[in-house]
Amino acid sequence: MGDMLRGVDLFHQGYQPPQFTLNNLPVTVTVAAPAGSYRPKTVFRYMDPGVKTGLASLEPGDTWSVRLEGVLPFSILGGGWAFDDTLPPSVRIEIEDPTGAKAVTAAERTVSPLQLLVRSGTASEYIVRFVNTGTTPVVSKRFSSLGDDDKTWILGKMTGREYILESTAGEGTYKLRAYVRQIPGPDQPGAVPQIIVVETWRRATE
User: Fold this and answer.
1) Strand ranges of the sheet holding 174-183, from the earlier edge strand across to the other edge
2) Which of 152, 172, 201, 162 is CA-nearest to residue 46?
3) Is the pTM of this model over 0.90?
């Protein structure tokens, strides 16, 4: 990831991932491309806003904010919030350009689900806020990577290049796989400084 921050192209034929030792075990790192593509690209992606952490249960008056970096300008951006509405909640989704170039766009509802989709402006960074404006806690339903109406998600068209970084230690006994996005990607103008986003970590079982 340090190489990625410096704008290194991990798919350049001369690049070799670092080899090191951890807890007296030699570690091998491999680099792969999701879906067989290694060119910088823009991808519509449904992202988890944190339904197992801060958004799992939002207390009255609380706000859960997610900052998105690397949003493609003039693209569709939004959020979907499905929640347990057995008690009468009141919730709000806000999308803000923190540079001040675009005012806050918001939608509010008392019945699940709440969805807000807008077109981004010239900025590449936005803040999506989930706000409990009611008097009862709001319990969020789980994340959907497909944007299901009865689930919770953020949708954005993100720039950059995606990698799969897999680390193996102990002759294959231990494996860890990270899905990483490099923004804006090494082939883009002004590629340094880069932003590195770890989209998910997984324990590789196969």
Assistant:
1) 20-22, 25-32, 161-169, 174-183, 195-203
2) 152
3) no
In sign, the C-alpha dihedral spanning 3, 188, 183, 30 is negative
CA angle 85-119-158, nearest 5°? 90
**CB-based burial label for 130 (10 Å; 0-12, 13-18, 19+):** buried
166 φ, ψ to 5°? -120, 130
**Residues of the chain scoring pLDDT < 70:** 36-37, 100-103, 189-192, 202-206
End-to-end CA distance of the chain: 23
Domain range annotation of the chain: 2-41+160-203, 43-156
Could you report the per-residue pLDDT of 53-73, keeping only the tens digit for each?
999 999 999 999 999 888 988
CATH level 3 topology of 43-156: Jelly Rolls (2.60.120)
